[in-house]
Amino acid sequence: ISILSKQKIKGVIIFSAEGASFIEKIVISLVCNLFSTSSIVFIRSGFFLDQFETSKFWRLIYFSLLKIPPFLGSQGKQWNEIFKKTRIKKKKIKLIRNWISPDKILSKDLLNKQNKEKFTFLFTGWLVRSKGVLDLIEAYKHSGILRNCHLILAGDGDLMNELKNNIEKNRLHNISLLGWCKSEKIDELLLSSDLFV
User: Fold this and answer.
1) Nearest 5°: CA angle at 13, between 191 and 188?
2) pLDDT truncated to tens, each residue of the chain (197 aa)?
3) How many Cα atoms occupy the beta-carbon half-sphere of 6 within 13 Å?
4) How far, in Å, CA of 145 to CA of 141, rounded?
5) Who contacts 66 (Cβ-Cβ below 8 Å, separation ≥6)?
6) Following DSSP, what letter does each residue of 78-139 receive, concatenated?
7) C-alpha to C-alpha distance for 74 and 96, rounded to whole angstroms
8) How many Cα atoms sit within 13 Å of 7 on the Cβ side?
9) Cα(67)–Cα(151) distance, rounded to whole angstroms?
């Protein structure tokens, strides 16, 4: 409120999770509206999708509050479908796919690797169904090409035990399940990998 009252701010990007975090971020968007400052609420949680689909209470809350922000950020088709169910106007929805922060852009050295044993894919984030992690494992199970590549999964979530069992059961020796990593480790992994999933 202090910043908005003292400066003319063009717009605000508001990142949100689900539940109480979402309500808090909608209040921030409402405050922006009061100061004639445009805002886009960008929900970055697969748990939001789960709550919307399984909880009548949260669906009602989301249904009502999603109408407040001038714009909503969508990561793709699944999010667009959710917003469509809440009758949000298409012009409010802005498709912004996942990205890596500009300060994490890697040097050309990455493209000039020599003597690399295996092509390496890297996934970082929550290990949950809605992130497509199980799809990655399925792809590795059924592709001879991928079985010759290395897949690193850096993160934690409710699929951790299922992934461990799946990797062991299917003898997917080229998949490394690291658990949660600090940002310095993620930086190292980004530099040493060939493709960010």
Assistant:
1) 10
2) 999 999 989 999 999 999 999 999 999 999 999 999 999 999 988 788 888 889 999 999 998 999 999 999 988 888 888 888 888 888 999 988 766 555 555 444 444 444 456 889 999 998 988 888 988 898 888 888 888 889 999 999 999 999 999 999 989 889 999 999 998 999 999 999 998 98
3) 3
4) 10
5) 72, 83, 86, 88
6) HHHHHHHHTT--GGGEEE------GGGPPPGGGGG--S-SS-EEEEES---GGGTHHHHHHH
7) 6
8) 6
9) 40
Residue that is written with structure tokens 């400066």 in the block:
7
Token pair for 154:
């850096």
Which residues are paired to 94 by β-bridges? Answer: 73
Task: Give how far Cα 34 sits from Cα of 59, 67, 77, 92, 174, Å.
Answer: 26, 15, 31, 18, 53
The model's pTM is 0.58
Closest by CA to 187, choosing from 132, 122, 133, 126, is 122
Structure tokens at 61: 């809350």
| Tokens (6 digits) for 89 | 């106007």
Task: Using the structure block, give the residue that is written with the tokens 């890596």.
Answer: 100
Query: What DSSP character marks residue 170?
Result: T
Residue with token string 């050309």: 108
Distance between CA atoms of 92 and 72, rounded to whole angstroms?
6
Taking the CA atoms of the chain, what radius of gyration do you get in angstroms? Answer: 20
